[in-house]
Amino acid sequence: MSCQGVVKGVTRSLALAMILMAPSCASLYGTQGAENSSTIGAAESPSSEDTQSLPPSVVNNPLAGVDWSDPIPGGVPVGSVQAARQYLPFAVHVPKGLATPGAVLVTGPLKEQDDTRVLALLYDTSDFGRLVVQEYPAQQSLSDWLEAAKATVGDTGQPGYYGSAELVTLADGAQGLLTTTPNGKLSVMEWLEDDVDMTVMGPQLDKAGATRYANLVVSDSGSG
Q1: Is residue 74 part of a domain?
Q2: Domain range holding 22?
Q3: From residue 84, how far is each of 4, 76, 88, 105, 223 by CA, in Å?
Q4: Are strands 222-223 and 93-94 parallel, antiparallel or unpaired?
Q5: Rounded to two decimals, what is the model's pTM?
Q6: Residue 34 covered by a domain
Q7: What is the tally of structural domains in the chain?
Q8: Which is nearest to 153 in space by CA: 161, 1, 33?
């Protein structure tokens, strides 16, 4: 599988998909793959015989394989946040600082019980185009997540890792992990709200945009 193929259909720990990628496709997202990963730290570098450098087209646009009209694999349109609630194992955090989403998707099939189901809210913005807010059950406690986030930040600049990571205090006091590609053009913000893992991303979203929209998501947001 190509490195581009690995990044298709990312639904878990988006920070992994963005930065601090070890220099081989095999270790790009750790042993489980991004969609099942419960950690946000970078994977260990492989042995030297398995190592291959990642091309700039991958490290500078690791989300190139994402379908921005359906960013979660098997996403099913449900019409509204209200309709989505019945399928989700967590209390939805409604981004009150944003307009009504243009589309609301939930991972299917909807007839099956799924305690790891993901919610995707799709927006079209005037400054950054498509914006996606994803919510799903947290895979770690807040303390464990923060510890892993700090470790991820600490890996920035180390041999064998790409891009950068930093912790940002959001408007509601939450600590967000802001990850950015080496060319500085693409960023993702991830944080925990209660027991929900929140992610803001988009195909043109840079550091300023990810920070701005994450703050709009938490601005007067409520769960329910």
Answers
A1: no
A2: 3-59
A3: 31, 10, 7, 8, 13
A4: antiparallel
A5: 0.79
A6: yes
A7: 1
A8: 161
